[in-house]
Amino acid sequence: MSNPSLLILPGDGIGPEVMAEVRRVIDWLGAKRGIVFDVSEGLVGGCAYDKYGTPLHDDTMAQAQAVDAVLLGAVGGPQYDNLDFSVKPERGLLRLRKEMDLFANLRPAQCFDALADFSSLKKDVVAGLDIMIVRELTSGVYFGEPRGIFTEGNERVGINTQRYTESEIARVARAALELARKRSKKLCSMEKANVMESGVLWRDVVSKIAAEEYPDIAVSHMYADNGAMQLVRAPKQFDVIVTDNLFGDILSDCAAMLTGSLGMLPSASLGAPMKNGRPKALYEPVHGSAPDIAGQGKANPIACILSFAMALRYSFDLGAEADRLEKAVEKVLADGVRTADLMGPEGGVPVSTTGMGDAVLAALDASL
Ligand code: IPM
Ligand code: MG
What distance in angstroms lies between residue 249's CA and the mean position of ligand 1's atoms? Predict the structure, then answer.
C-alpha cells in the first residue's frame, strides 16, 4: 500500500510559520512512529496571486482533488485588499471548499483548563467547555445567485442571495447528527425561520431527518440571534450546533473567543466519501493570516498542529495518534509554555513559534 498523501498549502502571513511546526510533527511521526506521509506543497491565496495571477492555480486545485487530505495555513493580507473580488486571496480558499464540495465544516470550541482565565467570560461559564459547531460551507449566501453590484435607476444596489436546497440542508444535517451520536446525543440547529424562507426550510428538513433517521438524538431549534446570545450567556448548554454558512461563520468566531484563544482552534472541512471510504477533507486553523505579526516568530502554531490532529482522526483513521498529539498540546499548556497571544496579566516570557513546536515535540517524545 502507498503512503497516505497530504497536500500542504501554507498560504500567507503567519501561515508558513505555523505550518513549519506541523511539518516537524509530521517528521516526528515518520521517525518515531513509522507513520510516513507523502507530502507535497503548493501555493494558495496572496502568494499564489503574486506568482500566478490567481489565488489558486488549476494544477494546485487538481492536486487537492487527488490527495487524501489538504492542510491549509491561512490566506490574505492588507496588500491584497484592493484586488478585484475574483482574485482576492479568500477566493482561493472558497474555490477549494466549493470544488472539493466540503459541505460540513467542523469547528470545535474547547476551553483548555490551563487557559480558562483567558476567556473574556467568567471562568466558571467556560471551564470545561467542549462544543462543536458544524457550519454548512458550500452554499447559502456565500455562493447564491444572483449576486453583484448593479445599477437601479440612479443608484447602485448590492445583491447577495441566500439559497439552500433540501439536499444541501439534509447532508449537513446528517453530518451533524452523526457527530452528535458520537458525543452527547444532543443537537441544536440554528437559523432565522422567523424572517427567512430558507430558515423555514432548514428547520423543516433538519426536523424530518432527525425524526426519521436519528430518533436517539435530542434535537432542538433556535433562532440564530438567540443562539449568539445563549453562546455568551451559558455556552455549556450546547454540544453540537448545526447552522448555515453565514451564521456559522459568525457563531464560530463567537464560540472561538469564548475559549479565550483564537490561536488554539482547529477546523476540519469534510465532503463526501472518496473511494477509500474517507471523506474529502481540508484542515485549517480558525485564525487568519495575522499580517501584523507575520514573519516575527510570534505566532502560536497550536491551532495548526491541532488541525493536523483532526486530519489524523478524520482522514487517516489514526485516532490514537491524534489523542497523543492533543494530549501533548495539553501537557505543554499545563506546564505553562506560552506564546505571546497566551500571556496573561501575570506576564512571563513568551516562547517563539519554534519554541512552542520544540515543547510539543518534547511532550510527544515523553509520551513514548
Ligand atoms: C472563515 C473565514 C472565511 C469565511 C473567509 C476568509 C473567506 O472567515 O473561514 O471563517 O468567511 O468563511
Ligand atoms: Mg470566519
Answer: 7
